[in-house]
């Protein structure tokens, strides 16, 4: 895998200084159609190319799924990004990957994992995740973004959006922001958010096909 820009778990601000536009949503739309469950989505498994493209790595935990509603029962993944159903050892489906993507989205905006804290052990982590105990996103982010991130990390899998629903929300947000135009002097955090989020969910599956397109402002 060519990922010369390194993994996403490098200092986020350093990566964002180079206007990297994430295409991870494209990859996951492809994976869902191929019935592949990754089960360990986290910044360390998301790699950036110098062209601003995203590669999802470490597929050792992935498996082929026969239908969208199939459940997997093994406890795998990374604790900070594990959903409550995975930590509890119960069956889980695609909504667990939605949870993990929500954790990544939160971390991109807030520059920290939603459930990370000092002196955290597995028991305290389980408690935090089970009750949805994490700092709210800062108010300078749009209501739509905050609602999407919190919805994706809902403790109830049935309340989480599907990948397609999240995609539709993101496209609507992008159109809205495009129509509004850029403010004269947006805060650095907002410029970062636009660079990452609104290009993270591109419009069509066809962009999975390698091309010369580079997503940059």
Automatic annotation (TrEMBL):
InterPro entries: Kinase-like_dom_sf, NEK_Ser/Thr_kinase_NIMA, Prot_kinase_dom, Ser/Thr_kinase_AS. It catalyses: L-threonyl-[protein] + ATP = O-phospho-L-threonyl-[protein] + ADP + H(+); L-seryl-[protein] + ATP = O-phospho-L-seryl-[protein] + ADP + H(+). The keyword Nucleotide-binding applies. Residues 1-170 form the Protein kinase domain. Coiled coil: none annotated. It holds the Pfam family Pkinase. Keywords: ATP-binding, Kinase, Nucleotide-binding, Serine/threonine-protein kinase, Transferase. One of its GO terms (molecular function) is protein serine/threonine kinase activity. Its EC number is 2.7.11.1. This is non-specific serine/threonine protein kinase. It comes from Ectocarpus siliculosus (Brown alga).
């Amino acid at each position: 895998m060519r990922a010369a820009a390194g993994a996403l778990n490098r200092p986020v601000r350093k990566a964002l200084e180079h206007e990297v536009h994430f295409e991870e949503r494209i990859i996951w739309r492809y994976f869902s159609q191929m019935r592949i469950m990754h089960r360990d989505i986290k910044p360390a498994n998301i790699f950036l190319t110098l062209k601003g493209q995203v590669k999802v790595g470490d597929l050792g935990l992935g498996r082929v799924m026969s239908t969208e509603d199939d459940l997997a029962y093994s406890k795998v993944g990374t604790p900070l990004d594990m959903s409550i159903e995975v930590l509890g050892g119960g069956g889980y489906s695609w909504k667990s990957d939605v949870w993990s993507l929500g954790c990544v989205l939160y971390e991109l905006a807030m520059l920290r994992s939603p459930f990370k804290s000092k002196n955290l052990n597995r028991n305290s982590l389980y408690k935090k995740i089970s009750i949805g105990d994490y700092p709210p996103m800062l108010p300078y982010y749009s209501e739509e973004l905050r609602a999407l991130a919190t919805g994706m990390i809902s403790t109830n899998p049935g309340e989480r959006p599907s990948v397609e629903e999240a995609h539709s929300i993101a496209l609507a947000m992008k159109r809205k922001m495009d129509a509004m135009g850029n403010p004269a002097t947006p805060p650095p955090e907002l410029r970062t958010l636009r660079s990452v989020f609104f290009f993270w969910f591109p419009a069509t599956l066809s962009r999975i096909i390698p091309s010369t397109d580079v997503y940059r402002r």
